[in-house]
Amino acid sequence: MGAILQGESEQFATVVKSTGGPPRVFASGELDLASAADFGRELTRLIDERGPDVVVDVSSLAFCDARGLAAFVAAERAARRRGGGITLAGVRPQLAKILRITGLDRTFARRTAL
Length: 114
Fold this sequence. Notes:
Elements: E1 2-8, E2 12-18, E3 24-31, H1 36-50, E4 53-64, H2 66-81, E5 85-89, H3 93-102, E6 109-111
Parallel strand pairs: 3-4, 4-5, 5-6
Antiparallel strand pairs: 1-2, 2-3
Helix pairs in contact: 1-2
InterPro entries: Anti-sigma_ant (IPR003658), MlaB-like_STAS (IPR058548), STAS_dom (IPR002645), STAS_dom_sf (IPR036513)
Organism: Actinomadura chibensis
Family: Belongs to the anti-sigma-factor antagonist family.
């Protein structure tokens, strides 16, 4: 596994790894107003460069606000336009509840582990 992209802010970090299948993004920290725009741009760039299917491991995500959700939604739309989709892996109960309340649980494929 080799990292092909790494981003980091004060409270949010991502590492993207590729193992021959869809790229896997490991997100950790707080996905919020301060980090969501950069995260969304990076996901869209990854979709453009590596293909429309992306797995995002959110098991280390401590917090996700509305801007974070919007970044996921925008990336999902970009992936679907190209025939793919975003899979969320390692969704913890707090994020699962937010996805359920907003109806986004029906938008993203989910896996319990990578």
